[in-house]
Amino acid sequence: MTPTPKTLPLTVLLYEGPIARAYLSALYAAGFKVKKIISLINVVDAVTQKPIAPKAPDEVRIPLAEKIQRQQMHYWPRFFHQKYPQACQAIQDASSTLLNLPKQLWENLVEDMNYNAYSDCIERVLINTLKDPALFKKLSNEPAGTILYTGGGIVPKSLLNIPGLRFLHIHPGYLPDVRGADGVLWSSLIKQETAATCFYMAPGIDTGDIIYREKFSCPQFKIGQDHFDLKSRYRLVFSFYDPFLRAAVLLRTIQQVADPDRLSLQDLPAFPQDTSTGTTYHFMHDRLKKAALEQLFF
To answer: Does the pTM exceed 0.70?
Structure first.
């Protein structure tokens, strides 16, 4: 008989995509559900930048916007899985071994995922961006606790300053050494490693108090340098490896730092960063991407 999952005192601010799915899948495989999922439904089409069915009633608009968002955010994982299954298998095998995660978790990135299995409480909020007043109103009415951020843009100070709430984030870099965008690639290029850090969010770029961080060797994806062009290799990394790198460190944080039976996740032991050290990186130029990806693809 499968054990009943333990419910973590954690609310997931779910922005549909591989990162959110990797978090929930890894936690569930380890025997955890989350207290609540707040699903952010973007009412603006990410491709056309036009409102989705603005005059339709919510019972029509919400499922339509949800379907469009799901299709768009999972386009690349599904594309690669369907067209290049052997390459995806090679990335899956190398990543699962390195991160010590079950291989079956990868299926959730390319198949339909029923979020009812991961929480007994799922609520939906229609938003334009994370600055949407509807989201601020929703979170302002939440009880004190911890919110797991899963993407969707820069979290505004107005949300971070809501009394009683703490936002948890997993950054794909070893803080404070590697802040900012494309953390996996900067780490592989500059440090010859990959890493991720769990921390409490604060105003600024990756500057909050650190809870847990871990370094890993660079994965070795044995599919050849010339099998995919630069954009495809980049998309492969951020469709598959990056989400589960983050998920592995979230899981280690829960297992090694937290005690779900006695300790609130908003009271985890953490230490402040020295913001005078480290470097904040930006999205890589293609020439640097090529050099970074050569650390990962063989």
So the answer is: yes
